[in-house]
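Today's session is about reading a structure prediction critically. Students often jump straight to the picture, but the first step is always the sequence itself: look for stretches that repeat, for charged clusters, for runs of hydrophobic residues. Only then move on to the predicted structure, which in these notes is written as discrete structure tokens rather than atom positions. Here is the chain we will use throughout the hour.
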Amino acid sequence: MTVRVRTAGTVHGVRAAPGHEPRGFPWLLLVAAAYLLVQLALVLPRLNLGWDESVYVSQVDPRIPAAYFSAPRSRGIGFLTAPVLAVTGSVPVLRAWLALLSAAALYGAFALWRPLIGPVRCALAAALFAGLWTTQLYGSQAMPNLWVGIAAVAAVACLQRAALGERRAPAGVFLAVAVATLMRLSDGVWLALPLLAACLWHRPFRRPPLVAAVVGGLAAGALQWVVEAYVRWGGVLHRLDVSSATEGGMGLRWAGDALWRSLDGPLLCRPCTVTPPPLAATLWWLALPPLLIAACLTAPAYRRTATWLPVLCAVGLSVPYLFTLPYAAPRFLLPAYALAALPVAGLVTDIAVRARGRPGRGRRCLTLTVLCLLLGAHMGQQFAVFAHNLRGSERTTRRYLLAAAQLRKGGLHEPCLVTGTQAPPIGYAARCASANLGGNNRSITLTALGERTRREPVAVLVTEGSPAPSYARHWRPLTLPGTGLTAFLAPRTTP
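Below is the predicted structure for this chain, in token form.
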């Protein structure tokens, strides 16, 4: 996209960044390259598929039966993984593909902000977002939250560029909202709501093509989810009811405490009773709201809309996770962090620019040194948390692989079925179908399970030391050393 307005001009109150600001070194490209390098060097060699990834990937992997796909999920991530899985089932190849895509998308989404806030601020915003441990860990994972965040960054930029008179920008709004909704329906709705509010309230955005772009993108992204709701659940309302039950009962509640407790992990806090991280490690999170308020209050006129609009959308995207869910996961707020990085980067850059213009070399150096130290400490702390959670994820996914290898050695070969504890990831690793008799992923009845034992090998997994389920008391036990699990294999019978 190319914006025709290259001066600090204005179109109905929406202004572009001053055109005389030099681009200089390609900082944004360097940020994207560093982000890619971290994923390829650290995540790709160590991390196999996780629990949720196995569910998403199995939907489009032609080699393995699809795991149960619960009501709250959306299928957008399958569009990213399907091209690779059609050729190979290699997890490192899939990781490399997603790492390349995420780095390119990070660059593309934040580059859209260059005419609005300038090249330095958009590069710093990208660095603040890419420097978060969740962004580093999930960039090459088959999970939707990061992609919602990148799409949200692009959507907000395109909306403002459309107000500057760029003809193709409404199409960018449509595509970005559609991608966000396709990745995660609820996030797409909570992104569209503040965008529509801006289109109705803020005069520069009060144009039918922009409203149509937001509504059309939401409808296009939600179409598959709605069709599946009628095919599998008998309608949208019933699917929403089932989704609420799966999530543990969604309703008005304060979940900010759970998000704070899980800020440095675990990756899924359900129920969230872990000890909170040290206060020093959470200061950046607690400081984020004041920083956003300060950014909105101090932004210059040409960047005012480019400051409050991402803040508005970040607040919208954080609402369901702060006020409706009974549990938490650090990745849930990735879309809000992606948008919040833009005004924070603007505020930090403005402070640095003002410091450079002040008289007195000592005062200038002190201000700039403090800013650099704070940013460096934040990035270092985030990388340390990233390394810690990467090691934990590596241990978990290695246990899945180890359990799958021992099951296959014990006689479980495709076509086969795995049920019980950790069935989806271990079943996927063992190249088997997975199903469960109860819980949020209930997808088979006891009668159907009995029929499957007559046709194929079946294994039920339980926590080590636990007894076999009543239906498997006479099945052959198989210890799975190093996994914390025990398997019980069904005796093969002929119909």
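Discussion point for the tutorial: The longest strand covers residues 458-463.
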